[in-house]
Description:
Blueprint: H1 10-25, E1 38-43, H2 49-60, E2 64-69, H3 70-73, E3 77-78, E4 91-92, H4 93-103, E5 106-110, H5 118-122, H6 125-134, E6 138-140, H7 148-161, E7 169-174, H8 184-195, E8 199-203, H9 212-215, E9 219-221, H10 224-228, E10 233-237, E11 269-271, H11 284-287, H12 294-315
Parallel strand pairs: 1-2, 1-5, 3-4, 5-6, 7-8, 7-10, 8-9, 10-11
Helix pairs in contact: 1-7, 1-12, 2-12, 4-6, 7-8, 7-12
Amino acid sequence: MMHFTKFDDKATAEKLIQKALHYKTNPWIDQAKGQRKRIGCIFLNPSLRTRASTQIAAQQLGMEAIVMNMDKEGWALEMREGATMNKGTVEHIRDAAGVLGSYFDILAIRAFPSLTNKQEDLEDFVFNQFIKYSGIPVISLESAIRHPLQSLADMVTIHENRNQEKKPKVVLTWAPHIKAIPHAVANSFAEWAIGCGHDLTITHPLGYDLDEKFTEGAKIVLNQKEALEGADFVYVKNWSGFNDYGKILSTDSSWMLTEKHLKHAKNAKVMHCLPVRRNLELSDEILDGPRSLVMQQAHNRIFAAQSVISHILDQK
């Protein structure tokens, strides 16, 4: 695995899940593995959990982690090939990524979508420019279309809480939001849940279909009440329109998950990647109640990142 950008196959996913669980029991067991190696964490967009968890994971492997908020601390990057740089950009990605590739052993990149240029976002253009020109392994800290480290942590969390005797019913439900939110977390969660063999149902208002590339194999139910019946895990997430790209099509508050929604899913555990807008996406009673796995998910972000970094170091 040269790069970690998406779900590859079930065998690799299972290996990464087990490795994450292994590190959770003993975080410092491989603290010599990354000695005298550096990881560059490059953020073109904000972060809390992803930034902190990746740094901690690298340090637990003995690596030096250097973080750059490129939108504030670096030069404005030109991404286009053959551009005449006579406007606002100062440094070309070819040069910046090449330099970073010479400084680090691994790069970890966060680059959100524009939500305006659909084709460019679907191609993961900005993220792939770093892969193209850095020449070293790259980890996705969330790209325009995927957030695989979050999804790996989600699969670890489901593994820890599921009944191992049966396939869990997992429901990904849309939630209202005041902003147009990217598809990356929803796409990636669907990709990993289906790939790991879970019984996935996706529920959302009319018009909020996700890219079929990520949902093939899932059951799509537009009636949220019906979708939630008998759920073992409920993953709450907002996303904007895909066909009407980047648009807010509904702010229907009835889609906010509350205890009433889970009347026919008495044992359901509830997940969210955070940050969450309380009492808009999810009610306080859910977030602070016994169903909530959100803090466990956030904690597992450390060990998901540690698993991936360790796996890449093993290949070098």
